[in-house]
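We modelled the chain as a single entity of 155 amino acids. Its sequence is:
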Amino acid sequence: MKNHWAMEFYDRASSLGIPSKMDNMVNGWIETVKFRNKIYFTKSSTYNLSRSQYFQGVDPPKIHEHGDYVLICGGVNNVLTDIFIIPWNPFFTTIRQGEAINTYKPPREYFQYKFYLRDREARWRMSVQGGIKPVLDVTEWHYNPKQALNFIEAT
């Protein structure tokens, strides 16, 4: 079963009365939402316990869009545990320094910028595959679900 962590988080925000609107769904997954008229590019990811990380991809056209935040909702063992609300510019500046990688076996092609969110020594770090492999410390943008809802409510 795939976990739609972002949908669970969206439902929690809506149930609290936070002004919410789904702007875009792709193949049954939330891609873009608005909370309190701020645009959030949204991803769901399941935590890999053995590697202490989240792993996800971003389609290349997304780097040319504009918004306010990137919302990454993650969990483990069917429990939503981690929310990252990363300002749009630092996230996509880091993504752009990577390299779009073909995620399919040839002859098929589907390119994405792949990134990791890794829990290392009590710090959360974002890195990308390919390119110059920049690292962005995202610890200050890491929340539990309740803290993230409080942030959105106050923003």
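As a brief sanity check on the tokenised model: The longest helix spans residues 5-15. The chain has one domain: 5-154.
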